[in-house]
Amino acid sequence: MKAMVYRGPYKVRVEEKDIPKLEHPNDAIVRVSLAAICGSDLHLYHGMMPDTRIGMTFGHEFVGVVHEVGSSVQNLKPGDRVMVPFNIYCGSCYFCSRGLYSNCHNVNPNATAVGGIYGYSHTCGGYDGGQAEYVRVPFADVGPSLVPEWMEEEDAVLLTDAVATGYFGAQLGDISEGDTVVVFGAGPVGLVAAKSSWLMGAGRVIVIDHLEYRLEKARAFAHAETYNFVEYGDIVLHMKKITDYLGADVAIDAVGAEADGNLTQHVTSSQLKLQGGSPVALNWAIDSVRKGGTVSVMGAYGPMFSAVKFGDAMNKGLTLRMNQCPVKRQWPRLFEHVRNGYLKPNDIVTHRIPLEHIAEGYHMFSAKLDNIIKPLIVPSAS
Amino acid sequence: MPYTADKPKPKESSAQLRARIPGWGVDLDPKDRPSVPRERTDLVTGAHWEFPERQEEKWPRERSVEHRFLTPVFGTSTPPAGLSGMMRKVAYRYSEGRAAHWLILLAADRVNAWESHLKSFISLHPDNPITETGILSEFSRHGLRSRFGRKRADLAHQWIDPAIAAGPWILVGGGVYAIARTLARRKT
Fold first, then answer.
1. N or C, which terminus of chain B has less Cβ within 10 Å?
2. Cα separation of A103 and A91, whole Å?
3. Residues A13, B26: C-beta atoms closer than 8 Å
4. What SS3 class is residue A308?
5. Residue A177: what pLDDT?
6. Which of A171-180, A182-191, A361-370, B144-153 has the lowest mean pLDDT?
7. Is B28 within 8 Å of A201 (Cβ atoms)?
8. Helix A212-222 and helix A188-199, axial crossing angle in degrees, nearest 10
9. What is the SS3 assignment for B169-184?
10. Are A142 and B46 in contact (CB under 8 A)?
């Protein structure tokens, strides 16, 4: 089969690999029909995530058709059209039994600080991902769901991470009616977090980024008030000015490890890898929210330390909430929102790239070329 | 406005927002939010086991010392090999709480990249920096137009990024050269 393969920082290619085999009685092998590149894949691509090995196939957002199932699989059969959450989880451990699927204790031998994620380095379990023609799906009775007949494939693939994560991020903000919510980052997760804030009753939703075309999308897709931080010498001060000098009630970091806007943070994290990530957006969130407010962190950071302004967070009495999204828990409600037209996931898709051209896809996404927001990957076998 | 006890009022009322934004307020009640409360024990996961069957371990699988045992299911992509594999095995002696664990893994990643590049040059599929970096999309996907005249924050440092990224390699190279030169002089 053809699969994307990591060849080192800023380098990927497509190689012929063996079709994955069943390795556990509850495994399934899924033929991928559509995948995506996530913003967090860029942290791997840029060499920021420890234990990212040459030869690994990335991709934690994918949908497809069941090709083969293991002997203990009861809920799926070959030919089923499935969507697969980015979390790999057992469904039975201490964490899974409490709904914390992203924190499963039975799937990642390499680390206890994170659960299992498809195609996301050995730090997240060493599983190959779905930017390929086939992928091994562990715990087939637990993770995947049948794609509803009425659902478009592009909507389904976005529900496997970006849309669920943005929706989850707004929930962690604990939004009350009339709250002011500021979202840092107008990528796919930020756009959905902004739109979801309205669903939860926000009175004002503000989106900050430095890419004008994404801010334009935030206005159209998420009905948001937008600001380009490059135009303001101090975006935190500007947030205070436009919120009666109190600050926003809720701030959401939808940027994560490679936030721009501070040269020292950029050099020490994105370039020299001396931090787990550049917490510029997180620090802006901490400083922009009002005292007693809530900061929701959806941006992904590496496991190393980061220079976060915890003093301000403590002195302001903030509530900091964060986690990798437990995706499948969001689906029943998200399916309703998509069906009712409240969320239109494929509105954020900008590029559909054949798997054979995935190297160009990664470069475009990394360099933010051609007004890219969300690139999908189409395997040749589909 | 003076600092008073009042919460600033949004410019639009809830009724106006409901009329303007499809779905406004449908999840206003926290009961409609699937991740509230954070922990729930009434969810059906599909698991039909108390503890999963164990996947076969086909090579000594590296694992965090913070785990009591090898997890029953694990990924089998890219087993450790070569010098980078030895470094990774050393890294896994340290807990996740130690910087040594992560720094050795990061160093192993860089070594792994060089091992693979060198290996590729004696294979039928050598690395090709032009195709693998996707750099040609700079021409087909408006590299210049996407950057200039757009108020992008990253433009301020893009020109110096390669030098910063290469800095540590140049320092290491310089150090190795200096040591080699010193040793050579001592011999003569």
1. C
2. 11
3. no
4. coil
5. 98
6. B144-153
7. yes
8. 30
9. HHHHHHHHHHHHHHHH
10. yes
What is the rounded average pLDDT of the residues A251-274? 92
- The position carrying tokens 């020299």 is A272
- Max Cα–Cα distance, chain A, nearest Å: 62
Given a cut of 70, whether residue A382 has pLDDT beyond it is no
Find the CB nearest B52 among A90, A113, A201. Answer: A90
For residue A280, pLDDT over 80 is answered with yes
> Which residues in chain B have Cβ-Cβ distances shorter than 8 Å to A198?
17, 21, 23-25
pLDDT of residue B160: 84
Contact A176, B30 (CB under 8 A): no
Q: Which structural domains are found in chain A, ordered by start?
A: 2-161+326-378 (3.90.180.10), 162-322 (3.40.50.720)
If we measure between CA atoms, which residue out of B22, B102, B112 comes closest to residue B64? B102
Q: Which two tokens stand for residue B62?
A: 């590296």
pLDDT of residue B173: 87
pLDDT confidence band for A7 (50 / 70 / 90): very high
Could you tell me which of A71, A91, A2, A345 has the C-alpha nearest to residue A195? A345
The minimal CB distance from B77 to the residues A24, A127, A340 is found for A127
Q: Provide ipTM, 2 decimals.
A: 0.95
CB-side neighbour CA atoms (13 Å) of B171: 7
Mean pLDDT of the region A295-302: 96
**C-beta separation of B74 from A100 below 8 A:** no
Q: Which residues in chain B land under pLDDT 50?
A: none
For residue A40, give the nearest of A256, A305, A357 by alpha carbon. Answer: A256
- Collapsing DSSP to helix, strand or coil, A205 comes out as strand
> For A208-240, how does the pLDDT look when each residue is reduced to its tens digit (9 = 90+)?
999 999 999 999 999 999 999 999 989 999 999
